[in-house]
């Protein structure tokens, strides 16, 4: 079991994914300072709109451990950071600290294993098209890994305009082939 400070968001990040964040709440400033000082990172989790916040059910159970790879003071005086996903975890329990920071007792998730017989060529090509169309996404990845099928699937799960519940369902099922089939149907 590992203990991770949690940063709930409406968006999600997966392993090898990158995300730019603006940090302004004191609890998250404390979390980022500690993560940088100790080089330990923190967990990013998706918000559950149907969950009870008082009982910490407003955070979905699958999250991703991230590390800060860059930071800067933004023009508006806020702290800007770029994080990169490391590995996924499942939250077993959440406690709330004195300043409102949620901390999870977590276990690492199994890593998907791509299957060579799975045809992900269309999914790969559509992701390349998105990177070419949206420079703000492309700029996050100086060395995109389009030849890595797992990297491609993870980027799609981050970008998909589907509900947090659907993304959680796809990540929990742990079936890479079904996820590729789902993505292929979406991008046709």
UniProtKB/TrEMBL annotation:
It comes from the Bacteria. Gene3D superfamilies: BPP1347 like domain, LON domain-like. GO terms for molecular function: peptidase activity. Keywords: Hydrolase, Protease. It holds the Pfam family LON_substr_bdg. The keyword Hydrolase applies. Signal peptide: none annotated. GO terms for biological process: proteolysis. Transmembrane segments: none annotated. The keyword Transcription regulation does not apply. Residues 1-188 form the Lon N-terminal domain. This is ATP-dependent protease. It comes from Paraglaciecola chathamensis.
